[in-house]
Amino acid sequence: MKIPQNRIEKLREQIREHDYNYHVLAEPSISDYMYDQLLNELILLEKENPQFISKDSPTQRVGSDLTKEFKPVQHNIPMLSLSNTYNENELIDFDRRVKEGLPEEENVEYVCELKIDGLSVSLHYFDGKLNVAATRGDGAVGEEVTNNVKTIKAVPLAINKKPLQKYSLRNFEVRGEVYMELEEFKKLNEERELNGEKTFANPRNSSAGTLKLQDPQLVAKRPLKIFLYFLFTEDIALKTQYDNLLLINELGFRVNKNYKLCKNIDEVLSFCREWEDKRDKLPYEIDGVVVKVNSLKQQKILGSIAKSPRWAVAFKFKAKQAQTRLNKIVWQVGRTGTLTPVAELEPVFLSGSTISRATLHNIDEIKRKDIREGDWVVIEKGGDVIPKVVSVDPKKRLKGSVEVKPPSKCPVCGSKLFKPEGEVALYCENNFCMQQVKGRIGHFAARGAMDIEGLGEALINLFVDSGFLKDYSDIFRLKDKREELIQIDRLGEKSVDNLLEAIEESKKRKFEKVLFALGIRYVGAGAAKKLAEHFQSIDDLVNASAEEIETIHEIGTSISKSILRFFADSQNRKIVEKLKKAGLCFSSEMKKKISGKLEGNSFVLTGTLESMARDEAKEKIESNGGKVVSAVSKNTNYVIAGESPGSKLKQAQKFGIQVLTEKQLLEMIG
User: Fold this and answer.
1) Which of 228, 327, 383, 615 has the CB geometry, 3.0–4.6 Å to 253, for a possible disulfide?
2) Residue 208 phi/psi, 5° resolution?
3) pLDDT averaged over the chain?
4) Where is pLDDT greater, at 194 or 542?
5) Residues 524, 505: Cα–Cα separation, whole Å
6) Distance in angstroms (rounded) separating the CA atoms of residues 371 and 369
7) Which of these, 245, 251, 233, lies nearest to 162 by C-alpha position?
8) Are 14 and 7 in contact (CB under 8 A)?
9) How far is the CA of 352 from the CAs of 186, 242, 281, 544, 636, in angstroms?
10) Coil, strand or helix: which one is 418?
């Protein structure tokens, strides 16, 4: 081994240790000047000896290459979202459900962790080196952000050899939350304001926006931090969440130290009360506590429902409140024509951001709370996200204030308004109302739908106002107007070409994404996926009856009526035909079934199965044409009962539903 290589390796080890001391332990062992001297020496030696440069070197944290696209990353284990609880009774109910789902003799411990208000990421290490970093995405598929995550100095590019050798560990995944501290966020916004740039709404938004920047050098200038809380590996047997947190810390990752092993639900409640009182003393935002069953074996037994694990829950803190004056009530028109009253407020700082507008929901809500213009109102962030008006201070009400009356005409296009029977909302039924057009195009282009990079609100407003876009099918004809577009101020040739490239790229989106992008009322991303899986093509869906649509699990009458109404409109059908001609995907591949032996039957799983986990049993049932539902009802055909089945077995007996053993299920499948 040559002398320069020895020195390079020694410098890398020293710099990694100093990074750990500074960014993880917050205990720097040398001055910034001495650290810079070591780093500069390493940069010089690697420049003189490029054959020794490696991806995990501290000099490679900030790359110079732009990320033109964020590639999809399939999560090996879905990054599920947590169910929320909002009071102690709901948390006690969670404890009851956990115990019912486990064998009676088993004791249950919980680990409580602070719920950091940031952006979830997954980090994959191969041979102890950072290989891939990805966002949560929709839980099943995220986006690769490796180059940007590498700029966060608390993220080790390579793990110290001692703990890897100690635990015989090479390949593993860790997950955590990327966030910004409040003081750093405030400084960032002040700098952006001085530079005439748009400020961020809150620390979470700034973290999410930063991780999606194309230039890692810009990301490196942002004060991102990270806490890690999850570890998975097939190299060694893992037993508890508490031990995993200790191991994550030992591997050199930054773990939030405010976690606790709780022997019972009373200790969990005590922990939640403590941190609800102390949350304002932290330098970062938290919006609750995450409560997890400690035993990984018990976690596996409990399993998960469609979107959330049964073994974990989030206890959400009460929303923070502030008082300010309501200056004016304006009516906004949404993409489906719904009119929503919005309060324009005297700006007030609340939960990390300045609030100047808040939703009033509908006219019935305004009347119920007797909200008037000029009132002093109490506002809070619902779930610490969406600001809303909670109440009015009647003692501060101005003399002569008058009750709010709903508009009789659309505030945008002047059309008559419609109020469906049994609904509180008012609607503008003019499909060509400018605000509806902009809203529909915005929804179509958004992430989760067609995900057209660069086609944001400002550009949509400009294109609609200029006559380039009349509906979302016009997006795919913008390429014919390239020469006109590059003449627009603040656009230019490069910006236009990037946009047109993103539009072409969006044609690769799957049928379920396209269906969601159409903006059919009540058809969210989940419903669109179910519909795409069932009908296989847009033509099948257009020709379907309400009864056929409603045979799909969790698709009810409101969705079926909305779909029929959407496709009954000739204008909507014309737009779909234009999108077909543009090359969008309006069909999906058939899911392979092993057989149809369970076709038309619904199953509920309860208790611990002997030969397989619940997720595996669910997969076997669905691949044979059956359907697995979470709750027992009169429409359930079979309940599969394992060991310690719990309350679902009693419900099955009450409804007279046939109960099968695991062995009987396997015999049915054959």
Assistant:
1) 228
2) -65, -45
3) 88
4) 542
5) 22
6) 6
7) 251
8) no
9) 9, 31, 13, 48, 47
10) strand
Q: Indicate the SS3 state at residue 438.
A: helix
DSSP alpha helices (H): ranges in 155-312? 161-166, 182-194, 203-211, 216-220, 241-250, 265-278, 296-302
What is the full DSSP assignment across 340-364?
EEEEEEEEEEETTEEEEEEE---HH
Longest dimension (CA), the chain: 88
Structure tokens at 462: 């400009």
Our measurement of the distance from residue 54's CA atom to the centroid of its chain's CA atoms, rounded to an integer in Å, reads 33
Segment 552-557 long-range contacts (CB within 8 Å, at least 24 positions apart): 553/602, 553/627, 553/629, 554/526, 554/527, 554/530, 555/527, 555/530, 555/531
Is 482 within 8 Å of 510 (Cβ atoms)?
no
Local confidence band at 384 (pLDDT 50, 70, 90 cut-offs): very low
Amino acid at the residue 21: N
**Residue scoring higher pLDDT (666 or 312):** 312
CA distance 507 to 503: 7
Question: Does pLDDT of 432 surpass 60?
Answer: yes
pLDDT, tens digit, 9 for 90 and up, residues 349-365: 887 678 899 989 889 99
**Concatenated DSSP letters of 183-203:** HHHHHHHHHHHHTTPPPPSSH
How far is residue 46 from each of residues 5, 160, 220, measured CA to CA in Å? Answer: 9, 21, 21
Could you tell me which residues are beta bridge partners of residue 129?
126, 158
115 a catalytic residue = yes
Q: Could you give all domains of the chain from N- to C-terminal order, each with its CATH number?
A: 3-60 (1.10.287.610), 74-316 (3.30.470.30), 321-418 (2.40.50.140), 434-506 (1.10.150.20), 511-582 (1.10.150.20), 602-669 (3.40.50.10190)
- Distance of alpha carbon 468 from alpha carbon 328, whole angstroms: 33
**What distance in Å separates the CA atoms of residue 661 and residue 643, rounded to the nearest whole number?**
9
pLDDT reading at 308 higher than 70 = yes
Spatial CB neighbours of 119, under 8 Å, sequence gap ≥ 6: 135, 136, 177, 178, 179, 204, 207, 208, 211
Rama region for 244: left / alpha / beta (φ>0; ψ in -120 to 50; rest): alpha
Length of the chain, in residues = 670
- Cβ-in-10-Å burial (0-12, 13-18, 19+) of 518 comes to buried
pLDDT higher than 70, residue 612:
yes
Instruction: Please report, for residues 295, 560, 569, 573, the alpha-carbon distance to residue 565 in angstroms, rounded to integers and kept in the order given.
Output: 50, 9, 7, 11
Give the pLDDT band (50/70/90) at residue 131.
very high
Reference 563, options 516, 506, 600; nearest CA is 516
pLDDT for 31 equals 78
DSSP characters for 59-108? GGSS--S------EEE-SS--PPPPEE-SHHHHHHHHHHHHHTS-TT---
| Single pTM value for the model | 0.58
Strands 417-418 and 426-428: antiparallel
Per-residue pLDDT, averaged over 318-322, amounts to 84
Interval 508-536 mean pLDDT: 91
Of 2, 10, 115, 278, which one is the catalytic site residue? 115
Chain position carrying tokens 């969406």: 386
Residues 6+ apart with CB under 8 A from 165: none
Most confident of 41-50, 484-493, 496-505: 496-505
Q: pLDDT at residue 645 above 90?
A: no
pLDDT tens-digit map of 222-256 = 999 999 999 999 999 999 999 999 999 999 999 99
